[in-house]
Amino acid sequence: MISQFLEFVSSLDLLARGAESELRKGHYYGVPAVYKLRRRKEYMDPSLDSDLRRARTLKEAKVLSVASRANIPVPLLLAVYPSIGLLVMQYIEGERLKEALDRGVSGHCDLARRAGAILGMLHEHGISHGDPTTSNYIITDSGDLYIIDFGLADFTSEIEDLAVDIHLFRRAVSSSHARLAEDLARCFIEGYSSVRGEKARPVIERAEEIMLRGRYVEERRTVWKP
Fold first, then answer.
1. Residue percentage of the chain with pLDDT more than 70
2. Which of 217, 31, 186 is nearest to 109 (CA)?
3. Which pTM was predicted?
4. How far is CA 186 from CA 59, 69, 102, 173, 174, in A?
5. Residue 39, pLDDT score
6. How do residues 69-91 score in pLDDT, each as one tens digit?
7. Domains of the chain and any CATH numbers
């Protein structure tokens, strides 16, 4: 039964394949859906591999459930099969924020502000995303903005963890959208702060520290480059 189900999942259209999992597009009881399957790692002890895939799948499912109940725009969780490392989620039809910015979409500052507000909502509910880059926000045809891919998400209230999220967004726009980076970062912080109020300040300050640490390390590498 399980093997037949896995064969069915493997027959679906491949959307993306990463180091840990693969995403496939299909339907779940008539609803357009994404099947996220964490594949077995052949080099790992089977028992340990199974435990890790189960734990990570359950955590991601819980994060999505908490975020959905808080009315945060994330894909709806449709089903979870922890024993085989499979999540079934709502398929969000649209364009990645990165692609929209690449083609020069109008209202880039408003989009960044909304992206920051979404991250702020996650942080308000004790969730760090882990990879909130412009590739992990989707704009629907109706103009709604969603955040996706919670494979690295965690439950935490540690300022360092939350600050890393902000740092990752700013680093992403600096490398992928250099011309707009300053505006995007500023508007992102505005959106984040609009949700978190005074609680935003220590997180933003820590994100600045993280950025400075990275610059220092890079400078040291340059100095000591053989």
1. 94
2. 186
3. 0.91
4. 32, 29, 18, 11, 12
5. 86
6. 999 999 999 999 999 999 999 99
7. 2-90 (3.30.200.20), 95-223 (1.10.510.10)
Cβ atoms of residues 76 and 120 within 8 Å: no
Report how far residue 152's alpha carbon sits from residue 9's, in angstroms, rounded to the nearest whole number.
23
Catalytic (active site) residue 131:
yes
Q: How many CB atoms lie within 10 A of CB 32?
A: 12
Rounded (10°) angle between helices 181-196 and 200-223: 150
pLDDT band for 214, please (50, 70, 90 cuts). low
Residues 166, 192 contacting (CB under 8 angstroms): yes
Determine the Cα–Cα distance for residues 209 and 160; give it in Å rounded to an integer.
10
**pLDDT per position as a tens digit, 9-63:** 999 999 999 878 999 999 999 999 999 999 888 777 888 888 999 999 999 999 9
Q: Nearest 5°: phi and psi at 26?
A: -160, -150
* pLDDT above 70 (res 128): yes
Residues 6+ apart with CB under 8 A from 114: 145, 191
Q: Determine which one of 45, 131, 149, 165 is catalytic.
A: 131
SS (HEC) of 127-168:
EECCCCCHHHEEECCCCCEEECCCCCCEECCCHHHHHHHHHH
Buried b (16+ CB within 10 A) or exposed e, 193-220: bebbeeebeebbebbeebbeeeeeeeee
> Residue 77 is inside which H or E element, if any?
strand 77-81
CB 30, CB 39: distance < 8 Å: no
Tokens of 78: 């449709």
